[in-house]
């Protein structure tokens, strides 16, 4: 790679300026800080400035005003595809970073900040995503200009970026890392972009040649002179990052010496491997000379030759320089013919760089000058020395960062902490407290370690650590845990100690990961049945000492309308632990699942469940939730005043949550192994000690003693301070068995619809609320892997039914066409025999369920006109078969009173474990929900 002249190429510039946001803090707590009217001026002024340069032709500058996330992605993709020479990407708007500062997100118009969510910054593409798109473009060079808060954090991300194409990307950033910046009063452009445009216009008027490195140097000088302050109180200082030797021509100029770009090296003192203002700069020119260059920003730089000429110091800094003319621009780091005083030294968190460090740098530079003087007249030897220095600079990014204004503290080593989704909010709060604690702060006020917390589905985490570690470390093809699960963790905090043993049980030979768990958990929280207070006082007053099934059945006996909901057992350990108690008390998985209410797919986390129940007050007031106890105190990110107050019932057969600290070490990841191990141990000591336990206590957790005392003095409302003996640890075998049973019971389903087609159904046939219409609505709960069939029930002799749709996998459209065909799906001038039809249905489903444990359902839609055939011996026979078959029956009566106590419909559904619906219910919604509990359709 080398200096690049894009003139005459197919160049593109994409200017993204987000001045208007849909969600701001003044309107919603999850909004961005505010509108950015100055960015509107940025976009317009920069567009005019770029079009006036000779690099971009007609139609090559694209303006993207306040795009949504989707619009941004499309604009970025299009620019990346069209650019063949230079691609310039500019962003101005709100920027936000992860806790550690290791990840930068660019917030688009519809961005929000959802604390506690897995996707905490929705509609804010990560800078890694942007880099990936740009690196994969057809462009030969890419210039990225960022004018946003935390823009400087992009340098570290670029430095760590491993994708192909990284070497062609050059970054120009408006501020140091970890800095918030002002945007002015909105009457004009932001300070950085205003200076950027001024310099572009100045060089256009002067017809000067302008390279990106020159632009950075002049921008830095102008911004330091203007003394715009960051939120930390230090001066806003533009940053840059690119590989050594790289530069991009932004405007061609008029030359008086005919020798190309200057007789001496560039002298701007850019760093090798990071453009950090310390290290080896590069020079191109025909002039000769030797010596050292002195960067204009007060930090020393070393010039070197690229083979077109010998590096030399600038004439205006003395030494034995080759000829340098103002027009030749041998060094662009100073205005021509004028000395520039050194700017103030860099600061550490608002304080001046310590004097010993400044002195050391000056002494080291003086020694370097003396050493290089020995090589005057020996260009090959000089080049070899400088090449070694350049390589050293590539490995010294931390030193460069410290001395070159990248925030003045070394970028802290970043720990990645993976945890259970139910624990994420608390672990994140603890990591936030740790980041700013004395245990994580140096004497100079810098952070020792950054911590990024992310959650992964519990089952996915176990599988990835046990069976996908090779792909996690080196993704390839379709197997990419970094995409599916998250980054490689340094620490894992599962919610159950048994998860480590579950990983060991499925670990493959050649695994790339080694887990070292603590011997004991550091906190505890029981899984409780959180019952609305209106229901809690109706039944048995005993809130502990009973099994989960006894608690649920007692709740339903007290109020038949009560429901119980549980979250996804594949996603959180709390849900899987509750499932163990549910299945052990019910005897089998299907019976356990029938004790739960479910409308659509289960909520992913307990917090989500407790937040969505209040969407319907009636549902919230009658629904008990299986959740970790701590959520009754810590809150779940939604307005607690809107939720029904709940009391905790403590099942004695459900293990509790036991978060445990697990060290995760990766094979062949030894570049910073010692430092990383030290950082992990310091975080572990704090998290499991007084500091971390205080945070867990504030969120409602208990200690790990036999009594499981609350860590905080004040219990939450509805929580028993001393609930008695609680089941502690789950075993790996029990957890795996329950998960396998859940997957089988909740896999693809089998549904047999019985549609009463007797003559009495004539008036209940053609409307959307008629028999065929209700059946059609319910098909949305079935997916392509589900099997179903439809029988027309009529006739009092023979089989008592006719097949409308054979039992098989059918697309939704196929079933709808059959139901709409009035030649096939019609009323018959005959009576129906529900006794014969139901017995035949039990036989059919029993035969189909012999070899699997997939969920099954029989649906009978009827007007009950012929239920005189469901009395006496006939009814007893049907009830006996319903009990034996174990297939739930949803009896759907199209008339009022069909589900009254003692009626055949109610008895059949109750005996079979199904649900009875009549005209007093919302039949469409109720039937759809019942089918969705069995099926796997998109409308679940």
Summed up, what is this model?
The chain is α/β, with parallel strands linked by helices and 940 residues long.
Could you please describe the fold and organization of this structure?
This protein is α/β, with parallel strands linked by helices and 940 residues long. It is 34% helix and 15% strand. The protein contains 30 helices and 31 strands. The strands form eight sheets. It has a six-stranded mixed β-sheet, sandwiched between helices. Strands 28-27-26-29-30-31 form a six-stranded mixed β-sheet, with helices on both faces. Strand 27 (787-793) and strand 28 (801-809) form a beta hairpin. Helix 5 packs across helix 6. The two termini are 54 Å apart.
Annotation keywords:
940 residues, alpha/beta, 15% strand, 30 helices, single chain, six-stranded mixed beta sheet
What topology does this entry show?
Layout: E1 3-4, E2 12-17, H1 37-52, E3 61-65, H2 69-82, E4 86-92, E5 95-97, E6 104-106, H3 127-135, E7 141-147, H4 153-160, E8 169-173, H5 191-206, E9 210-211, H6 212-226, E10 239-241, E11 247-251, E12 279-280, E13 301-302, E14 347-348, E15 351-352, H7 355-373, H8 379-394, H9 397-403, E16 413-419, H10 424-435, E17 449-455, H11 458-467, H12 469-473, H13 481-484, E18 491-493, H14 498-506, E19 513-517, E20 527-532, H15 533-536, E21 544-546, H16 548-558, E22 563-566, H17 573-586, H18 589-594, H19 606-612, H20 617-622, E23 623-628, H21 631-634, E24 646-651, E25 662-666, H22 673-687, H23 690-698, H24 732-745, E26 750-756, H25 771-778, E27 787-793, E28 801-809, H26 812-820, H27 834-848, E29 856-862, H28 872-885, E30 889-893, H29 904-912, E31 916-917, H30 923-934
Parallel strand pairs: 1-11, 2-3, 2-4, 4-7, 7-8, 12-13, 16-17, 16-18, 21-24, 22-23, 26-27, 26-29, 29-30, 30-31
Antiparallel strand pairs: 5-6, 8-10, 9-11, 14-15, 18-25, 19-25, 20-23, 20-24, 27-28
Helix pairs in contact: 1-5, 5-6, 10-23, 11-14, 14-24, 17-24, 25-26, 25-30, 27-28, 28-29
